């Protein structure tokens, strides 16, 4: 069509099956969550992928009249869901190989079939995923920074319980300067070569594939853990864990785009305080007085 920029061609079916219809098929949000569990990525990366997909789906519905020009009306929805996960692993510094993403997507959608072989179908899936990622970047307008509600929830709990993070370690004291030694040889004597019979130790061997995978898994798992809080009552830890779970569940709904990260965090902390019902937990009104009161009621619902 004239006036439309030519983009990468995406087949109607990217290899993962037809697009799910309303009421039947696979829900993309559940598929993203299952794929994230197979890839062992942290919950923050999963939430970023869900936000990418919600923005893509909202764009597709808003441009339903001209969707044929971009090929988005008949495109495979699960293909773009996989592209959202693959893109989120890059933006959150939790890289996963495209081969692992394809294998996990195949296992998540077809658990009864054997693993995928490297054949013509595998390369077709790979090309379709890369093409979908390019289209997704254009739809998102390269705005990939997502303000998640996890870190505001931590700050709210710290403020409620008057907990402050541990101060950063003091910088190391530099050693005193060593006065220069007077040269014992004339300047024109040339460089001094020191010889020794001792052999230098061999360089350490490069890490093998198993060690690299273990390191990547340990880094990704550490991102999913709650930050350490020192000198706090047990109720603060329980409230933080409960609010963290509510925030993770909030990103399973597309309505999360209608609220800011601070609104979601404040609603999660308020519900956590009510459910935990801890004696040491402060009042919710004090939370609303300390911070600008958002629309707590609609956000909680």
From TrEMBL:
Record InterPro entries: Cyclin-like_sf (IPR036915), Cyclin-Q_first_cyclin_box (IPR048055), Cyclin/Ssn8 (IPR043198)
Single GO term (MF): cyclin-dependent protein serine/threonine kinase regulator activity
Coiled coil feature spans: none
Domain of life: Eukaryota
Composition bias type Basic residues, residue spans: 210-220
Protein name: Uncharacterized protein
UniProt source species: Allomyces macrogynus (strain ATCC 38327)
Biased composition (Pro residues): 170-183
Region (Disordered): 170-229
